[in-house]
Design goal:
The complex is a heterotrimer of chains A (about 500), B (about 290) and C (about 350). Chain A is about 30% helix and about 25% strand. By secondary structure, chain A is α/β, with parallel strands linked by helices. In chain A, a hairpin with a 2-residue loop joins β23 and β24. Chain A starts with a strand and ends in a 12-residue tail after the last helix. In chain B, α6 packs across α8. Chain B is globular. Chain B starts with a helix and ends in a 16-residue tail after the last helix. Chain C has about 350 residues and is mainly alpha-helical. Chain C has 16 helices and no strands. Classes of the chains: A alpha/beta (about 500), B mainly alpha (about 290), C mainly alpha (about 350). At the A-B interface, α2 and β8 of A face α6 and α7 of B.
Chain lengths: ~500, ~290, ~350
């Protein structure tokens, strides 16, 4: 008997069919990967299972019984728990409060805080989660917050766990920890569905895999024996995909973007501690590290958005000072790590976004008034060159897919021919097809002789694109290497502060 | 400054007396904002409460029924605000101000229709019970504040309310009835604000006057924010305003122009706001909906 | 069919405005009837008072003038996602300063005196609001609270100044001296109160629209309003722009007060504003925060006021009903979902089906 049987599920929205006649079956005590590109329908399908969405057609059976799941509390009653990609936590409250909310222990009229903490502590010990029940959630790391989410589901008696893109925000080590937890839960009899677009993880942890493409279930319940990563990629995208775009550098030239003695403090503690490195022309210098170790602050410094205690910054032999506007003028291009919050104004048109940051150029404006014709032809030109899929330049940006939105950011920056480019998380939330394109464009830039600093939490991306690699931990550069020299485990160790051997080498 | 000691008791008494309606309304505001709904409509709830209290007292001759009617009137407006915010997902700033406009128009209109007057209603019985020089409603207020604090921070309901206000989506995914909780928050707000209004018309005075609350509702909004959405802190913030109001009369006797004194509480607030207080963060989910 | 559906979708805010107005009128009519009054008599009087003859239309426009200004002021601030609830205070600040400059007798011709007086009012309103912007940017003050506080400070300050320093001699009420003729706004028609202020108001709206659509600073302000972080990352100086936005918003509010003093009362009378500042929020809402829409919206609310004056004179129906209409309009405009529900879901279903058709084609 299956733990979950979804048959003939259809989800129709006014304009689009998100799920098209999909079957999905989960066996008891298995780890089942639900694979697909962004927008393929995996989250929708699971939201239907969890009662957050209602199917237009189709039937669901849990442990053999036909059920109607019309709201999350019904799913919870049936033993289904969901851990969302974007955590559903209340940061200002404690771990215990977050977990017991909705089924709180009471004493008389009052909420029994002590009992809640005790119960949660017990569960933490049982599953070996290593967090503190009375700690405020906002003080936890991302990996720890995820554990709180998992506990939430377990506390409510979940036997079927749905994890939505759980590794998107984790380091390699945290991913391994998560997998261990998943195996432990599996041996305790839980059935786990992991929604993901990451092929490697499916290979590592899943017993069986189902692949969604454009709402249709391309493969369902496929056993993992004999399956390769390329097989999975082909199923996901529908064609053969070059997974690892690599082109060795044509020639690394002189050092150009020089960062020395960079120290920065925030609220009394040092966030950047004597950072030194140089990016050469014709090179992609990769920066690997777990989010939260100073990368965001480093990016802000290098793009003029943050004040420092000390910094010697040079482009060639010209010192670089000023604010964000000055940095952009001097030819430092910035692809922000979160395009939605820093890169784009979603309510503005494609056109308006395409010139953002460069809008004060004389080619675009005259005495404070825009030259609309000039702007329009520029934007249309770039849309074609960078293959941005949109009806026209006047649409609102939030009508575009994630990949196309990212292309707008890239088109905007690359077209201005910056000498230095600071790129952060370039393919986050971007599907495999667009990812290939973006990686190729980055390599093109490098081959044109630009200096590229690539910061990414995606170790694969950093390893395959970089000519040289730095590892950042706790606000310091802790290692410098060439991709291939160190194993991923060693790198992962350095990223989490282990291994004292390779200390900050001067570059 | 001999006059000062002679004035001290009256000033302190007046301080408390001026603060009472503000405290009721602001504590109500705390519940509203903590459940995720902005409280710019406090003025409407107070004004309606003041009016319905007088209506109730007029037709029954009983001041306590009047007070209950005041609470009901405020609750009605709280419900309206809830409907607009929760079900119809309005821009809460505009709906608050719109309801304020509506309350002013409606109460003036009803006064005209019921009693044929445009300025003030006929006289009605007033509370008139004093303990230790303070109206009995002051003691009621103290109890209300303590209960409000306990409920908000120590009960299951309060925990759920606060979760809804911080993250309605999260609350809905654990099966909390987000809509019901928001409605409850806003009904509590209306009831308390209505009580504050009833105090104005049935205790402080003994009739309803056109535009009786005269912007106190907006001051209550300010107090709610400055008190960081905590019922106990509300008392202290409100007392500052009450004190300035009360001191006005004393200072006027000293020959300082009344208009300048009237400015005092607002300038004090501005200074506090600018220099004394770090960024006040409201609950993260204010104005949000579970289906965003 | 496809073109019509796209038309309906894009017309949404205008359709909503018209529907809100209609619903508000209908509901008020029902309430009137329930109270024993004749709604047709009431609306008849209002329409006559608003549009019945030349006099009525001019009265409507006169009433609309301050509302267009305050509506524009609120709308302007909204473009940077700022909530300026202090327009009432900025209005009074502008009025005060203008009244003072207006009585200065230095033998200036109108070509100098009038712009000077107006300019002073604009500056006063702008500085008042700009200060709020400064406090917000430098100290993180919440502008909702700050503007409410400044309102009170402004009205108290003005009351003090008028009563203790600028009181008109021998006058029974709290008001300043009449301004000099060289500072008076020219009337458009003899014996009627309407001045060129209406032209200034309409001009200002068009200027603001152009400002936001075509200029670089307007673009930057919009970026800050829609995504401050992205704007800052792009090198836009968000803090300075927010202060500038508040300044201009307050300046327009100040202009509202200034034109009233120089055009209508020809002096500053305490309490001359029956809440123009807050009504500006209503005007802006009905206009869906569109600068040009503010013109029409202001006229609508002006019509209500003009009509209500006639209603008062010619019938025994309480004029508070017009205030009720106004409040209902604001509420309906803020609640499109409510309006949609009242219209019947069917209409929306047809629109949805139309969208699907359009997508499939």
């Amino acid at each position: 008997m299956y733990a979950v049987e979804m048959r003939g599920i259809v989800k129709q929205y006014p304009l689009v069919r998100a799920v098209d006649n999909a079957d999905f079956l989960v066996k008891n005590g298995e780890i089942h990967s639900l694979l697909g590109e962004n927008g393929a329908g995996k989250s929708t399908l699971m939201k239907i299972l969890y009662g957050m969405e209602q199917p237009t057609k189709g039937e669901i059976k849990i442990n053999g019984n036909v059920v109607q799941i019309d709201r999350p509390s019904r799913a919870i009653n049936l033993g289904i728990g969901m851990v969302h990609q974007h955590f559903m936590l209340t940061p200002v409250m404690s771990v215990a409060e977050n977990i017991v909310i909705g089924c709180e222990p009471v004493q008389g009229l009052f909420f029994d805080q002590k009992a809640a903490v005790a119960k949660v502590d017990e569960m933490i010990k049982q599953y070996g989660f290593r967090i503190s029940a009375s700690e405020k959630v906002k003080n936890l790391s991302v990996g720890e917050q995820q554990r709180v989410e998992i506990l939430k589901a377990l506390y409510r008696g979940a036997d079927i766990l749905i994890l939505d893109e759980p590794t998107a925000v984790l380091t390699p080590n945290e991913v391994e920890e998560l997998f261990q937890i998943m195996r432990k839960l599996k041996s305790a009899g839980k059935s786990i569905v992991i929604i993901t677009h990451k092929l490697k993880e499916t290979m590592d942890i899943a017993d069986r895999v189902s692949v969604l493409r454009d709402g249709k279930m391309v493969e369902t319940g496929l056993g993992m024996e004999g399956i390769t990563v390329s097989d999975l990629a082909r199923m996901m995208v529908g064609r053969n995909v070059e997974l690892q775009v690599t082109r060795k550098s044509e020639g690394i030239k002189e050092a150009y973007f020089k960062v020395h003695h960079l120290t920065a403090t925030e609220r009394g503690s040092q966030v950047l501690k004597d950072v030194n490195f140089e990016v050469h022309k014709g090179e992609i210098l990769g920066l690997a590290g777990i989010e939260g170790n100073g990368q965001s602050e480093l990016i802000e410094v290098l793009t003029g958005l943050r004040k420092t205690d000390s910094l010697d910054l040079y482009m060639g032999d010209q010192p670089v000072t000023g604010d964000a506007g000055d940095f952009i003028q001097k030819g430092i291009g910035h692809i922000p790590e979160d395009r939605m919050t820093r890169g784009l104004v979603l309510d503005m048109t494609l056109e308006e976004n395409m010139i953002l940051g460069y809008h004060r150029q004389s080619s675009f404006e005259n005495k404070g008034i825009f030259k609309s014709k000039a702007v329009r032809s520029y934007v249309n030109e770039k849309m074609e060159e960078y293959r941005v899929k949109a009806p026209n330049a006047q649409v609102r940006l939030n009508a575009l897919s994630g990949g196309n939105q990212q292309k707008v950011v890239i088109a905007r920056v690359f077209s201005q021919n910056p000498e230095v480019i600071v790129v952060a998380q370039p393919t986050r939330g971007v599907d495999v097809g667009a990812q290939e394109y973006i990686h190729n464009r980055l390599l093109d830039l490098r081959d044109e002789g630009k200096a590229v600093l690539l910061i990414s939490a995606d170790l694969d991306e950093v390893l395959c694109l970089s000519d040289r690699l730095l590892v950042m931990y706790d606000g310091r550069i802790v290692a410098e290497t060439i991709p291939g020299e160190m194993s991923e485990t060693e790198l992962g160790l350095l990223m989490t502060g282990g291994s004292q051997q390779k200390e900050g080498k001067k570059v | 400054m001999n006059n000062l000691t002679a004035y001290l008791i009256p000033i302190l008494t007046a301080t408390v007396s001026m603060s009472v309606p503000l405290i009721f309304a602001s504590v109500g505001g705390v519940y509203s904002v903590r459940s995720g709904i902005m409280a710019l409509g406090l003025e409407s709830m107070m004004m309606t409460g003041a009016f319905t209290a007088v209506v109730g007292a007029y037709y029954t001759g009983n001041v306590w029924i009047g007070i209950l009617c005041g609470m009901a009137g405020g609750a009605l407006l709280g419900l309206l605000h809830g409907l607009l915010s929760v079900r119809y997902k309005v821009n809460q700033v505009i709906s608050g101000i719109g309801l304020n406009l509506l309350a002013l128009a409606a109460t003036t209109l009803l006064m005209q229709l019921l009693w044929g007057t445009k300025g003030n209603s006929p006289q009605v019985p007033s509370v008139g019970i004093y303990i230790g020089g303070l109206s009995v409603l002051v003691y009621v207020m103290i109890v209300v504040v303590i209960v409000a604090w306990l409920v908000l921070f120590k009960t299951r309901f309060g925990l759920r309310l606060r979760t809804v206000g911080e993250n309605p989506k999260a609350a809905s995914t654990v099966g909390l009835r987000v809509h019901a909780i928001k409605y409850t928050g806003v009904l509590i707000c209306g009831t308390l604000a209505g009580l504050g209004g009833a105090y104005l018309s049935l205790d402080h005075m003994d009739m309803f006057v056109r535009d009786m609350t005269a912007g106190r509702g907006y001051i209550a909004v300010v107090i709610t924010i400055l008190a960081r959405y905590n019922p106990i802190s509300v008392v202290f913030c409100a007392l500052v305003f009450g004190f300035c109001d009360a001191v006005q009369i004393y200072l006027q006797g000293q020959g300082i122009p009344s208009q300048l004194i009237q400015m005092l509480p607002y300038i004090v607030t501005l200074l506090v706001l600018t220099f004394g207080v770090k960024h006040i963060t409201p609950p993260a989910g204010v104005g949000m909906h579970e289906s965003d | 069919m496809k073109k019509f559906m796209i038309f309906i979708r894009n017309m949404n805010s205008v359709v909503l405005a018209i529907v809100s107005l209609t619903l508000a009128v209908l509901i008020s009519g029902v309430i009137m009837a329930l109270c024993g009054y004749n709604p047709f008599e009431a609306f008849g009087a209002i329409l006559v008072g608003a549009f019945g003859d030349k006099r009525a239309i001019l009265q409507t426009l006169t009433q609309a003038t301050p509302l267009i200004f305050t509506g524009l002021a609120y709308t302007f601030a909204r473009k940077a996602s700022l909530i300026n609830l202090g327009i009432e205070g900025q209005l009074y600040a502008g009025a005060m300063v203008t009244a003072v400059v207006g009585v200065m007798d230095f033998g200036m011709p109108m070509a100098i005196h009038l712009p000077l007086a107006l300019g002073a009012g604009i500056l006063a309103g702008g500085l008042f609001a700009g200060l709020v912007g400064f406090l917000k940017v430098k100290f993180g003050s919440n502008e909702v609270i700050a503007t409410i506080m400044f309102n009170k400070v402004a009205t108290c300050l003005v009351a003090y100044l008028v009563n203790y320093h600028f009181l008109a001699e021998g006058s029974g009420s709290a008001q300043t001296e009449k301004v000099l003729e060289t500072a008076m706004l020219p009337r458009l028609f003899a014996k009627y109160q309407l001045t060129i202020a209406i032209i200034i108001a309409v001009g200002a709206c068009i200027l603001v629209k152009y400002f936001f659509e075509k200029t670089v600073v307007g673009y930057e302000i919009r970026a800050v309003g829609q995504n401050q972080l992205a704007a800052e990352t792009a090198g836009i100086k968000a803090g300075k722009l927010m202060i500038l936005t508040m300044f201009i918003s307050g300046a327009i509010g100040g202009l509202a007060g200034a034109t009233h003093v120089l055009g209508v009362d020809r002096r500053l009378m305490i309490g001359f504003s029956p809440g123009y500042g807050f009504d500006g929020i209503a005007v802006s809402a009905l206009a869906a925060e569109n600068p040009v829409g503010v013109i029409l919206s202001g006229i609508v609310f002006g019509a209500l006021r003009a009509g209500s004056m006639v209603l008062n004179r010619t019938t025994s129906i309480p004029t508070e009903f017009t205030n009720v209409i106004q409040a209902l309009v604001v509420l309906f405009v803020a609640a499109p979902l409510l309006v949609k529900e009242m219209l019947g879901v069917n209409l929306m279903k047809k629109l949805e089906a139309g969208k699907e058709e359009a997508a499939d084609e």
